[in-house]
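Sequence in, structure out.
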Amino acid sequence: MRLIDTGDLEHWGNSLAAQSRLPYFVGKLIRAAVEPESLRMPSGDAVWVPGADGEVLNTKDSGFVPRGPSIWEVGTDKQIKKKADGDYKKRSKVDRKEATFVFVTPRVWTKKKEWVAKRNAEGAWKDVRVIDGVDLKDWLERSPAVSLQLAAEMGLVPEEGLETPEQAWQKWSYLSSPPASEEIAVVGREEQEKELLRRLADPPNAMTIQGDSSREAWGFALAVLRRISSAEERFNIEARTIVTDSAEVAERLQNRRNLIIVLKQATAQVSGFLTPRGCHVVVPVGTASYPEQSVIQLARSTHRPFVECLVMMGLSEEEADRASRACGRSVTIMQRQRAAANFEKPRWAEGSSPTTLLPALLVYCLNNIFAVVGSS
């Protein structure tokens, strides 16, 4: 997936934001490519902290990340050689024969091979490498989740039908007013949350999540990924996750590896061709679907925990109590009843006969009975 070209990287490199954000994205690219034993890559205000821009320990072979210890320097300067020379000199003051020196620039450096050959001939390091704008473009193309996030930050229009987890979550959360929280998406579903994370740790597979609607199911999946307690593990997962509008859009990723693909909807049978190619695929469905296997069924919360989540979202205790009873603790119904904008009607609402509402009315009544019993 090529969203960013060398010209885009060159233009972005001229911005003040790139100085502090490039190390952040280099770190994400490293995590998307390998699972480093350790990684230190300060970004934001921390780029001004003395010392190397990055330190990585990687035990696996990778085209972009050297095996073993490596010292990274990241610069956006237009005078590339001057910046590389200065960083190389500073980091070569101690014995580095067991480590690799890596210099990263978003600009195209036509003389990089000559510079690398000269530095390697000095023998001060195990290896010397340069990742310039051409290499970054290729690396981003192989890391679509990171590419999407950087493209969004650059103000570029991402490929239609693909979103970063953050973009998808913002859209999902702001369907309601106040915005839905991660807690409301997973409340009462702690076991399903653990099950999803367990399956993502397994070899690549396709898994179905069934909620009151497919929209609720993919919102749950995104919330679970955002709630991972370990910052490092959450970072690793985020660098691999991409959200697609449908299975048809996901098929464009057939040449990618090691992705977590979250579908927004599955309009037909989802092909299993992505999992043998090394990708996890999360398929969301609603109650109208009848999946046969590998299903994570989302239960509804009891009344009190649901109320507490609504209070955390900003509702008063009285409002939250009424809202919980009105929606029957269904996140799908809650988002529809408290829609921030026009909301798509469910299919049953289009029917002309009142008898079509009887099953839904019965479920609503039973849910409220159970809510009263559960809260007493």
